[in-house]
Structure formats: structure tokens, C-alpha cells
Design a protein that fits this description.
The protein has three domains: 113 residues, NAD(P)-binding Rossmann-like Domain (Rossmann fold), CATH 3.40.50; 144 residues, NAD(P)-binding Rossmann-like Domain (Rossmann fold), CATH 3.40.50.720; 148 residues, NAD(P)-binding Rossmann-like Domain (Rossmann fold, 3-Layer(aba) Sandwich), CATH 3.40.50.720. Helix content is 34%, strand content 16%. It is built from 16 helices and 18 strands. Strand 8, helix 8 and strand 9 form a beta-alpha-beta unit.
Length: 458
């Protein structure tokens, strides 16, 4: 079996692509066509665009796949959902029509985890001060490890284009002018794998090297740096000019060198301190240790030396030494009672719906400022309770990629009064369901889609 649709002696699979952001649909269509699949349609799903002749429908933000629609309009073999779940596809109709559904659960793990960290950083450091991604290399001049967490906060907020996301959410811009989910977030970057340069040895850079290597698995390069950096954090020796030309971020740990090509330079001393809290060394709770929650836990523990507790129905042996699992039968307040940052990365099901209610929040947020970050589902936590507690000062910030009434907003429906209040609240930081997006995630999605199409051909 070869990758793609070029199969000798067999008819090619035909595919229809529905309800993707324009950039995602175009990339998938191009990749599939190149590999020999027949792409019959790419655009919005409607009765007149539903391709019953297609072997497989590739869907994402399709909210119309209900029983009545699918009885009249459906693919021949089944669906590939460019998400982690298939709750938007009617299961009864699939069973009656003998259709199957494949999911793409792996492509978004890294960007969602990094988005959660970016929301946490935005909660305590305020707006990102760095230039847009289009400006290229950013240089932190006169750098020393006094500013390690502050620098990472700016870097990850920039890579997630967090300010643009907050602006879109507050303005309820969940769809673009064509009525599709916007493409811009898919040009976000990931800090994982970024090229980081270090020049000089006059000021310490061990802390920032640890965060970037151990926490985010960045590629580190150095010129005239201490040998210990090479040994402890795999900083690879490189030439002065090559580092400048090929780094995404550059840390000048000396005043003797300066970049010659004139990249954008940021005065390290102007990095703002955190508001009330800092992530490094703090107590962290991770609710849900699936792939995303596990990645968040590793970043917090290995990068920021946090004390990480976890709530999950099962224990993951691979997280030994990284998290302390607490008894899932006990009240959830015990999991996060000593945590300044609590990350929600749970799936939505009967056991997690309204997991955190007004009562639980009353138990959790007494006598301590906390940040609650949600990259799971909006209905895991009661929105009324959130608004009440942030309004009364019982919660420093609620930062979420899943606003109140999230599904309705993603369908382009007008927000009700409660949703507007939620999105405009000064202590609520919303982004418009875009944590999964990045350039690298899109390429991983293409790879996953090919793998799932091959499953249909077996």
C-alpha cells in the first residue's frame, strides 16, 4: 500500500473537504491532489455542495452533520474528522448507513499545550511587547538569567500571536468575511523546535537554556559560550554569523558582540515583571493527563521546576517523577488546593460536564490569587461561577480558548448578553478556539489525513 491514492489495479479514492479554514482546506486539497486523490470539492458544507459520490468526507467545523442531513447526504465510506473527536457527526446515522469515522488526534498536541502556557503567561505578564512574527529574528540584548521567565513569556505569547487572538475573541470575530473559520491562526509558530542562539559568556544563560531545552525542546546554538552550556543543555557550537542568520531568537549575554544585519532588538531590562505570581517554582494542577495535559505537565516541571499535581482517571507511568497523581475519587478541590496555576485539558463527557461549579470554586479560591486556564471544553466549568469569582476578586484570571457558548460562536451566531459579558470581562482572557493552530500543526494534520485515508483503502 503506497501513501496516497495511486493504487495499481484499484480505483482512486475521492475526497470532499468541508468547513476548513481556507488555508487548511487549500493545503489539504493541494497535498491530496498531488498524491493522486480526486478532490471533488473544498468549501462549506450545504445540501447543494454535499458530494454523495465522494468516498470520504474530510470535515472539521461542520455542525450540520445531524441525522436528517446524513440520511440524504453522506459519503460512500465515511468521514475523517480533523479533530480529536466525532461528536459533531450523528452516530445513529453512521451506524444505519454503515459509515465509519476516523479522527486526527495527534497533530494539535504541541500547539494546544503551548497555547495553554501562553495564556498563563499573558495572565501574569500583560500584553506581548515583541514585534509580530513577520519581523523575523528578535534579539534580547544585554541578557542575563534574571529575566529568563520574562523572556520566555514574551516569546511564547508572540509565537501564539496571543494579542490577535484575544482581540478576535473580544470582538466576536470567530468567522472571517467568507463565513469560514479564519486562516490567520494557522500561521502561528511553535516554540518547540525553534532555533535559539546564544552569544557571549559575560552574563548567565543557564536558566533560559534549561527552560527552552528541557521545557520546549528548542534547538540551541552558541558562539563564545561557557562549555557547561554545551554539556548540560546540548548547546551546539556555531559561527557568529550563522547564528545571527538562522536563529529565531538570539540572546546576547555580553556587550562585546552585536548583530550586524540589524534584526529587531529588545532591551532585556525593559521586560515587565509578573503580576502577583510567577510560573517558575509554583504549584501547578493539571486536570486531565492525556497527550495535551501530559505535555503541559512536562513543560511546567522540566522547564519551570513547578510542583505539578494531576487529576486523571488513570495513572500514566511515563509521568512518574513529573506529576503527583491524587485520588480521582476525592473532591477536585484537593487536586488544586495548593496550586497557583490550574490547567484544564479534560475531554467533555458525562463525568466532566460541570466538573467545576460555583461550590467547587468557592472551595478553591479562598485566600489565594490563582490563574485558571481552560483548553478543554467550555462546559467543564460553569460560566456564571467564573464571572462571579473574577468579579469579586476571588480569581486572578480565567484564561480560556473556549468561551462561554463556544459552539454557537464558532457557527457565527450572535452572542447573547452573558456571552458578551464573559468576552469583555477584564479578568477573563479569551481566545477564539484556535489553540490547535500553527504552521507545523497543519503539516502534521496533512500527514495524519494521509494515514487515515490509507485506513479506508485497506
Amino acid at each position: 500500500m503506497t501513501r496516497g491514492g495511486k493504487l495499481s489495479g484499484q480505483s482512486r479514492l475521492s475526497v470532499a473537504i468541508y468547513d476548513m479554514p481556507t488555508a487548511v482546506g487549500a493545503r489539504l486539497s493541494s497535498a491530496l491532489t498531488k498524491e493522486g486523490f480526486d478532490v471533488l470539492f473544498e468549501g462549506r458544507l450545504a445540501p447543494e455542495t454535499a458530494m454523495n459520490s465522494a468516498s470520504v468526507w474530510l470535515v472539521k467545523w461542520s455542525y450540520g452533520l445531524n441525522y436528517d442531513f446524513l440520511k440524504s447526504h453522506h459519503p460512500k465510506l465515511g468521514f475523517i474528522s480533523a479533530t480529536k473527536g466525532v461528536d459533531h457527526i450523528d452516530r445513529k446515522a453512521m451506524a444505519e448507513l454503515n459509515l465509519r469515522a476516523e479522527t486526527c488526534p495527534g497533530f494539535s498536541t504541541v500547539p494546544v499545550a503551548e497555547h495553554a502556557i501562553a495564556l498563563a503567561m499573558r495572565s501574569i505578564y500583560g500584553p506581548c511587547l515583541l514585534p509580530p512574527l513577520s519581523s523575523g529574528l528578535v534579539v534580547f540584548s544585554e541578557y542575563s538569567d534574571e529575566y529568563a521567565e520574562r523572556a520566555v513569556a514574551q516569546m511564547i505569547m508572540r509565537s501564539r500571536q496571543i494579542e490577535r487572538g484575544i482581540e478576535r475573541a473580544r470582538n466576536c470575530n470567530y468567522l472571517d468575511a467568507s463565513g469560514r473559520r479564519p486562516s490567520e491562526p494557522w500561521f502561528n509558530q511553535e516554540l518547540a523546535g525553534a532555533r535559539i542562539g546564544f552569544i557571549g559568556r559575560d552574563r548567565g544563560a543557564f536558566g533560559i537554556a534549561r527552560i527552552l531545552k528541557e521545557g520546549f525542546d528548542c534547538d540551541l546554538y552558541g558562539y563564545d559560550v561557557p562549555e557547561e552550556l554545551e554539556g548540560f543543555y546540548s548547546v551546539k557550537p556555531d559561527s557568529f554569523l550563522h547564528i545571527i542568520e538562522h536563529s529565531d531568537y538570539l540572546f546576547l549575554c555580553t556587550s562585546h558582540y552585536g548583530p550586524r544585519a540589524g534584526p529587531w532588538s529588545f532591551d532585556t531590562a525593559s521586560l515587565p515583571p509578573p503580576e502577583d505570581l510567577s510560573l517558575g517554582g509554583s504549584g501547578v494542577a493539571v486536570l486531565g493527563t492525556g497527550a495535551i495535559g501530559s505535555t503541559i505537565a512536562r513543560i511546567c516541571k522540566k522547564g519551570f521546576d513547578c510542583d505539578v499535581r494531576a487529576f486523571n482517571r488513570s495513572i500514566k507511568p511515563e509521568l512518574a517523577g513529573i506529576v503527583e497523581y491524587l485520588d480521582p475519587q476525592k473532591p477536585i478541590s484537593e487536586t488544586i488546593s495548593d496550586s497557583n496555576f490550574s490547567f484544564i485539558s479534560l475531554p467533555l463527557n458525562a463525568g466532566t460536564s460541570n466538573l467545576i461549579t460555583a461550590k467547587q470554586m468557592g472551595d478553591l479560591f479562598i485566600n489565594r490569587k490563582r490563574v485558571l486556564i481552560n483548553v478543554g471544553r467550555d462546559r467543564i466549568i460553569e460560566s456564571d461561577a467564573v464571572i462571579d469569582f473574577v468579579s469579586r476578586g476571588g480569581l486572578l484570571t480565567y484564561a480560556t480558548d473556549l468561551a462561554h457558548n463556544d459552539a454557537s460562536l464558532c457557527q457565527g451566531k450572535a452572542p447573547d448578553d452573558k456571552t458578551r459579558m464573559f468576552l469583555q470581562h477584564g479578568r477573563i482572557l479569551p481566545t477564539p478556539h484556535e489553540a490547535e493552530c500553527s504552521k507545523n500543526a497543519l503539516e502534521r494534520l496533512v500527514t495524519e489525513v494521509f494515514a487515515k485515508l490509507n485506513n479506508f483503502m485497506m
